């Protein structure tokens, strides 16, 4: 079995493509007749026997003409992939159960267009999902496609190699290649919606955040990543140059409520994956309510904050919880 895997890796060039762009050369493209191509060859053989038996000159001419068409079709099928350049992009995180989309830029440097290019992942876990993407490329043009992957569980996903194939122009031959980009994406736990835990009061004089109350306006300060966009002072930003950071409104007075999304608040007898999903649901709900929330896991703690960056950090922590660093 080990020898077979090693032979397949050598034959199909299954090593990682760490250089970008990926260029499909002659040694990376494979071609075989399709079922229609085999039937075409059998029909030609039968016609040839009949032409020889009845000494039909026009029959010989027709057979050799059709055979020449088949050979030309084989060459065009091969060259539909030859020289194609592939540049992988960055995939965005999704929740478990959703489709992850892996962007791929296609570049055609030749003066002939390419047609009917089919992209799919070789090890797609859900066969019932339509995960084959078809693309056409204009002459000396580019295009960007996204290859989907049906996610099943949280964690860091490596989708593996791509199967790129074509049967253009006549469907008599199938040419394919196995590009293997360096791709990975974080899959968040599937959220389970449950009521948020009760918040706890915290003074705004917290040394980590300074005076950040939400009652009285206290001035302006440079914007940080965790600051929500609704606090941006747009009038002040309009008076500043483009290279200066945005300003946000600073408030003072009163006490705020900090929401802690704690592992200990989830059902103690529940499955660990379900507990992570409950926390993911709390993160989504707290972000929708624009609450100031923190995340507490065994051995991991994220201070309360707001914004898209904080939401992504919390969800990524839940997605990778219990896994070793890559």
Give a quick summary of the entry.
This protein is an alpha+beta fold. The protein has helices spanning 2-12, 35-54, 57-79, 234-238, 272-288, 308-319; strands spanning 22-23, 30-33, 85-88, 94-95, 99-107, 114-121, 133-137, 142-150, 155-157, 162-166, 173-177, 185-188, 200-203, 216-222, 247-252, 255-262, 293-297, 300-305. It is elongated.
Write the topology of this structure.
Blueprint (H helix, E strand, L loop, with lengths): L1 H11 L9 E2 L6 E4 L1 H20 L2 H23 L5 E4 L5 E2 L3 E9 L6 E8 L11 E5 L4 E9 L4 E3 L4 E5 L6 E5 L7 E4 L11 E4 L12 E7 L11 H5 L8 E6 L2 E8 L9 H17 L4 E5 L2 E6 L2 H12 L7
Helix pairs in contact: 2-3, 5-6
Question: Would you mind describing this structure in some detail?
Answer:
By secondary structure, this protein is an alpha+beta fold. The chain folds into 2 domains: 1-186, no CATH class; 200-319, no CATH class. 27% of the residues lie in helices and 29% in strands. The protein has a 5-stranded antiparallel beta sheet with strand order 2-11-10-6-7. Helix 2 (35-54) packs antiparallel against helix 3 (57-79). The chain is elongated. The model is unreliable at 201-214 (pLDDT under 50).
């Amino acid at each position: 079995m080990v020898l077979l895997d090693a032979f397949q890796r050598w034959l199909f060039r299954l090593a990682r493509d760490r250089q970008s762009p990926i260029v499909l050369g002659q040694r990376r493209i494979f071609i075989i007749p399709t079922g229609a191509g085999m039937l075409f060859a059998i029909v030609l053989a039968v016609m040839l026997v009949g032409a020889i038996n009845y000494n039909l000159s026009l029959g010989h001419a027709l057979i050799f003409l059709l055979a020449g068409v088949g050979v030309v079709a084989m060459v065009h099928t091969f060259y539909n992939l030859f020289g194609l350049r592939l540049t992988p992009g960055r995939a965005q995180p999704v929740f478990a159960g959703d489709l992850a989309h892996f962007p791929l830029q296609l570049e055609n440097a030749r003066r002939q267009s390419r047609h009917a290019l089919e992209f799919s992942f070789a090890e797609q876990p859900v066969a019932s999902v339509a995960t084959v993407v078809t693309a056409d490329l204009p002459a000396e043009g580019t295009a960007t496609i996204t290859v989907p992957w049906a996610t099943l569980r949280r964690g860091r996903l490596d989708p593996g190699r791509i199967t790129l194939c074509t049967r253009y122009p006549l469907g008599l031959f199938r040419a394919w290649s196995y590009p293997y980009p360096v791709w990975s994406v974080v899959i968040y736990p599937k959220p389970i919606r449950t009521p948020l835990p009760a918040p706890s009061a915290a003074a705004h004089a917290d040394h980590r955040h300074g005076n950040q109350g939400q009652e009285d306006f206290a001035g302006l300060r440079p914007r940080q990543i965790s600051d929500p966009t609704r606090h941006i002072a747009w009038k002040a930003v309009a008076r500043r140059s483009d290279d200066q950071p945005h300003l946000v409104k600073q408030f003072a007075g009163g006490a705020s409520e900090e929401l802690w999304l704690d592992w200990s608040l989830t059902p103690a007898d529940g499955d660990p994956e379900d507990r992570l999903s409950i926390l993911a649901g709390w993160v989504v709900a707290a972000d929708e309510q624009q609450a100031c929330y923190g995340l507490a896991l065994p051995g991991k703690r994220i201070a309360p904050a707001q914004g898209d960056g904080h939401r992504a950090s919390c969800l990524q922590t839940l997605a990778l919880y219990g896994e070793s660093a890559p």
